[in-house]
Amino acid sequence: SFIVSTILFLLVNGGLTIDCPNSPSQWCKSNEIAQACDVIEQCKTYVWEVHEDDNRVHLSIYYETLCPDCRQFITTQVWNAYQSIPDIVNITFVPYGNARELYRPETKLYQFYCQHGAEECYGNLIHVK
């Protein structure tokens, strides 16, 4: 009886609709969720990236634009490693940041707070472009 009711409900309502989760960390969990959040292209580019050259090691560096530790890591460790193996590695830099988001129901927008201030949030946006 429950199964029949569920099937009838799905047929009448055209299937289940997926709502976009409040947390951006969940937006690329599936194609359906990414579509509901209108971030398919971003997920394809930064999360589900398909590489043409499968013989290389693919490394993604998630960083904060104004973080002193991230800067030091990139300019020393990553740069030195890359100099040794440029022909076998693809590095993708992703401005991610240690941020928290707050959904504002009155504006239906998110407000972001970055660990190193508003300038870092702005820097992360610039680096995405």
From TrEMBL:
Q: Which family does it belong to?
A: Belongs to the GILT family.
Source organism phylogeny:
Eukaryota, Metazoa, Spiralia, Gnathifera, Rotifera
Where is it localised? Secreted
* Residues of the signal peptide: 1-17
UniProt keyword annotation of Iron present: no
MF terms from GO for this chain are: oxidoreductase activity, acting on a sulfur group of donors, disulfide as acceptor
Under the heading Pfam families, the entry gives:
GILT (PF03227), SapA (PF02199)
Its domain of life?
A: Eukaryota
Q: Name one GO cellular component term.
A: extracellular region
Keyword Disulfide bond appears in the UniProt entry = yes
Saposin A-type domain residues: 13-53
Q: Which UniProt keywords apply?
A: Disulfide bond, Glycoprotein, Secreted, Signal
Enumerate the PROSITE patterns for this protein.
Answer: SAP_A (PS51110)
Q: Write down what this protein is called.
A: Saposin A-type domain-containing protein
